[in-house]
Amino acid sequence: MFAEYIQAALRHAKYEVLEDDTYMATVEGLRGVIAVGDTIEECRDDLIGAIEGWVALGLRLGHTIPMIDGYGINVSLEPVPVVE
């Protein structure tokens, strides 16, 4: 589910070339997710890390993670019984 969510987010990434010929990427709907890199590949790798960190922090703070293309991240706050 996590990998599918990230792939969906990457499909919505917007890339732009900055004045210094580096790249910047954002994902609409994921406020605060910004990545940069010297190449488009480095920028995409940074974007994956930014999305992962954004989701992890959001979950830790109890925020709702928005759906993207039908993919979502849901975590139950209910304790899970341990089966031995």
Q: In terms of topology, how is this protein built?
A:
Blueprint: H1 2-11, E1 13-17, E2 23-27, E3 34-37, H2 40-60
Antiparallel strand pairs: 1-2, 2-3
How is the largest sheet built, in terms of strand order?
A: 1-2-3
The pLDDT mean sits at: 92
- CATH architectural grouping: 2-Layer Sandwich
* Structural class category: alpha+beta
Which value, in Å, is the CA radius of gyration?
15 Å
Number of helices: 2
Number of DSSP strand runs: 3
* Helical content (DSSP H or I, runs of 4+): 25-40%
Largest sheet: 3 strands, antiparallel
CATH topology: Double Stranded RNA Binding Domain
Low-confidence stretches: none
The SSE string, one letter per element, is HEEEH
Distance between the termini: 26 Å
| Total domain modules | 1
Q: Specify the overall morphology.
A: elongated
Strand residue content: 15-25%
Folded structure, characterized:
With 84 residues, the protein is α+β, with helices and mostly antiparallel strands. The protein has a single domain (2-60), classed as Double Stranded RNA Binding Domain. Helix content is 37%, strand content 17%. The protein contains two helices and three strands. It has helices spanning 2-11, 40-60; strands at residues 13-17, 23-27, 34-37. It has a three-stranded antiparallel β-sheet. Strand 2 and strand 3 (34-37) form a beta hairpin. The longest helix is centred in the middle third of the chain and has 21 residues, at 40-60. It is elongated.
